[in-house]
Structures are given as structure tokens and as C-alpha cells.
């Protein structure tokens, strides 16, 4: 994930928490803030120390970044997304993390309709 596509500053996180909308499932909470001037979405990640040691937290963050990289074409560009991982994520593999993220992003209506060549049966 390129640097310009990440939310890094505390001020930007706080703005998303205060002005954005939140959507959640058991594994993730996602705060979404629409920014009209952006031409690419940005993500910010938060994985609490309650979830595990540094190795586990970094692995979870890598899984989330990779999932967003694979979903890049389907995510609407004008958003800041703050992803907060919950405890059940610690026992999940990459494919489960991606599936859970897709679910919460569909609920939040940030995903575009999938392309015709991108069906479940493939």
C-alpha cells in the first residue's frame, strides 16, 4: 500500500471518528468518511494490543493491507476508511479476513458492484 493511500495522522483518524459513519461485524469496525477532493481511497489501520503480540498485530495488518490491495478496483475512490480489528481476527487466516472485510464494506456500500468476470463460481 503506497504511502499516499494511508491515513497516518492522529488528526485524520479523529476526523473520521467524529464526522464519519461506522459499520461493523464481529471481526471489524470500519469508519468511513467521504472526501470529494480525493481520487483514491485511503486506509488507516488500528489493531489493539489486546489482540496479541507485535508479530500477531503486524500479521493482521499485512492481511488487511493485502485484502485492500486485491479489492482496490472495486472500492469507491472518495473515501477515508479506518479499519479497527477486533479480537476474533487473531484466529483467522488471510482468506477469512478478506471475506469478513468484503462483508463489512458491502454493508457500508463502499464497494462498487463486482465486474461480470469476477463471479463467485470461478
UniProtKB/TrEMBL annotation:
Keyword Nuclease: yes
Reactions accelerated catalytically: Endonucleolytic cleavage of RNA, removing 5'-extranucleotides from tRNA precursor
One term under GO cellular component: ribonuclease P complex
GO biological-process terms attached to the record: tRNA 5'-leader removal
InterPro entries per the UniProt record, alphabetical: Ribosomal_Su5_D2-typ_SF (IPR020568), Ribsml_uS5_D2-typ_fold_subgr (IPR014721), RNase_P (IPR000100), RNase_P_CS (IPR020539)
Keyword RNA-binding among record annotations: yes
Pfam families: Ribonuclease_P
E.C. number: 3.1.26.5
Entry keywords, A to Z: Endonuclease, Hydrolase, Nuclease, RNA-binding, tRNA processing
GO MF annotations in UniProt: 3'-tRNA processing endoribonuclease activity; ribonuclease P activity; tRNA binding
Family statement: Belongs to the RnpA family.
PANTHER family: RIBONUCLEASE P PROTEIN COMPONENT
The protein's assembly and partners: Consists of a catalytic RNA component (M1 or rnpB) and a protein subunit.
Function: RNaseP catalyzes the removal of the 5'-leader sequence from pre-tRNA to produce the mature 5'-terminus. It can also cleave other RNA substrates such as 4.5S RNA. The protein component plays an auxiliary but essential role in vivo by binding to the 5'-leader sequence and broadening the substrate specificity of the ribozyme.
Name this protein carries in UniProt: Ribonuclease P protein component
Source organism (scientific name): Sporosarcina globispora
Amino acid at each position: 500500500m503506497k504511502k499516499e493511500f494511508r491515513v497516518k495522522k492522529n488528526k485524520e483518524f479523529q476526523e473520521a471518528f467524529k464526522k464519519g459513519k461506522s459499520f461493523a461485524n464481529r471481526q471489524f469496525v470500519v469508519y468511513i468518511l467521504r472526501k470529494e477532493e480525493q481520487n483514491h481511497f485511503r486506509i488507516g489501520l488500528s489493531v489493539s494490543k489486546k489482540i496479541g503480540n507485535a508479530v500477531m498485530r503486524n500479521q493482521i495488518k499485512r492481511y488487511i493491507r493485502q485484502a485492500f490491495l486485491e479489492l482496490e478496483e472495486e472500492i469507491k475512490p472518495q473515501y477515508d476508511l479506518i479499519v479497527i480489528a477486533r479480537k476474533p481476527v487473531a484466529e483467522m487466516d488471510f482468506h477469512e479476513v478478506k471475506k469478513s472485510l468484503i462483508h463489512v464494506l458491502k454493508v457500508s456500500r463502499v464497494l462498487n458492484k463486482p465486474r461480470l468476470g469476477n463471479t463467485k463460481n470461478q
